[in-house]
Amino acid sequence: MPTQRLVPTVLILALVLTACSTSPTTWDAAQRAVAAMGGAASVQGIDIIVLSGGEGTRNRLGQLFEDGAADPEATLSMVETTLDLAGDRSAFEYDVSLASGFMQHRIEVLTEYDGQRIGYSINNNGRMASSPGGLFSWGPENSPLRILRRDPVTILLGAAASGAGGAPLAEVEFNGSTRLYGTITTSWGEEIGLYFDPDSDLLVGFETLETEPMLGDVAGRYSLGDYRESGGVLLPHRVTIVKDGTPFSDVRYVSIEVNPGPPAIFAVPEDLADQAAQAALEDNTAPLAWTPVADGVFHVVAYSHHSMVVEFPTFVAVVEAPYTEIQSLALAARIEAEIPGKPIRYAAVTHPHWDHTGGVRGIASTGATVLLASGHENQMRRVIGAPHTNPPDRLEEARRAGSAGTIEAYDGMWSTTEGDQSLALYEVSGSPHVEPVVLAWVPSAGVLFQSDLFFPGTGGGSPASAHLLEAIRELGLDVRTMVGGHGGVGPFSELVAANTGD
C-alpha cells in the first residue's frame, strides 16, 4: 500500500495542550518533537526533501563467497535520496563499490506514468521501466518503495496526528543513551516504536517489523542523527539502519534541500516511455525478450539479469530466477504465453547472490520445485523458508493456499530427462567468484548456461571465465553454445579465445 501523507489540522492546538500533560504519551512526545524541529506549520509544509552528497556503507548486499562467510561491505558515495512526500514518489541515485573492484552508478526511481505508479531503473548493465516492485536497490534501502514508509517526517506527523491518550512513555536504553519510548500504529497498518531524546525532544530513532525480499521478517531499527537546519526546520542528516541485529546501511548526507522545484529525476526518460506505458497498464510487468537458442531452449533477456527456459514434452524448467519477484512473475506469464499448457516444474539456482536469486520466491509461488546444490542449500533454505508478512509476498500467499513449490537438494549433479530433452546441473567448486557455482547443461542442443563467470557476446577473459573453461573440459561437455545470466548468446569458441587466445 502506498504511503499516505498526513497533515494534522489540530497540531498547533495540540502543542499547547501537551504542556499540561504529566504522564506524556507517544502522541505528546511527537507534538514536542515537531515543535523542536521548527513548529507544526513548517514541518507540515514539507512536500519534497532532497538529501545530497551522501557517503557511507551498505553492509548487506547478499554477495557471500560461500555459506558462512561474511557479506562484503560496500561503499556508498554521491548518494542523493529524493522524497516527494506530497506526490508519493521517491528516488535513489548513488555509486556503489566493493573492495574487489566492482563499481556501479545506479538510479532507482518510484514515480508515475499516465497517472499510475511505475518504477524505472538505470545502471551499468541497462535501463528499464517496470511495475514498482521490479525495483532492486543497493542503496540505503533495498528499494525506494520502502524509503517512503521510513521517512521520519511522515512517521512523526503520523504520530502527532494519532490523537491523545495511549500508554505513557517508557524510559529505555537506545544506542547507549536513555530515551523515551512509545509506539504508534500508522495509517498503513504498521506498529512502529519511536525513540525520543528527553533533552532535545527530537526523534532519534524508530523500529518496526521489516519484511525484506531475501531476509524475510526481521526487526528493523533506524537511528537518526546529525540534526541540522534545512529550509527552516531541523532534519536528520545521518540515517543508520540495523536489520535482524546486523548493520544494514549507514549514510551521512552533506546537505538537505526542502521544497525545491519539481525534481527532474521523476520524469521517465524518453527511451523508457514504451516500457513505462506498459507498466502503467499491467501489474507485475518487467521487460523481457524471448530469444530462441535451439530447439526447446530459450534465453529470456531481462533488464540486466537473465534466465534460460528449457521446454520438455509436458513441462518447463527455468534456470535462474533473478532480481525480483516481479521479474519472476513476468517470466511465468511469458512462459504461459509462449509455451501454453506446460507448467514450470523446476527452477534451478546457479548461486545464492541476491541479485541472482531475488526472484526465487516468486518462481516458487507458481508451484515450481526449486533445485538447490548442496553448497547453496543452507543459504537458500533460509531465503525460501523465511516468513514474509509485512506485507506478504506471493510465496507467503501460495503457502497459505497450499500451492507453493517445494525444495529438492542435490549433491554434485542433478539431471532429468523426458522424451528427447534433458537438463543436467553440475555443482562445481574452485571458482574465484563464488563457492560453489552451478552450470546448467542441455546436451541435445550443446547449450551451457552460467551466471557471472563469462558474458557471452560481450565479455573478455577473467580468472572466473578461465576456471569455467577448465570446469567444462573436466566435465567432458561438448559445448557448442554459451548462454549467460549476463550478456547474451555466443559460441563456445568465444570463451576459448577469451582465455587462451586460440
Tell me what the structure shows.
The chain is α+β, with helices and mostly antiparallel strands. The chain has helices spanning 11-18, 26-37, 40-44, 144-149, 152-160, 273-281, 325-338, 354-357, 360-364, 377-385, 394-401, 463-475, 492-500; strands spanning 48-58, 74-84, 89-97, 103-113, 116-123, 126-130, 170-174, 177-185, 191-196, 203-212, 216-230, 233-243, 246-252, 255-258, 289-294, 297-301, 307-311, 316-319, 344-348, 369-373, 407-410, 413-418, 421-428, 437-442, 447-450, 481-484, 489-491. The strands form 3 sheets. Strands 1, 2, 3, 4, 5, 6, 7, 8, 9, 10, 11, 12, 13 and 14 form a 14-stranded antiparallel β-sheet that branches. α2 crosses α5 (152-160). It is elongated and about 75 Å long.
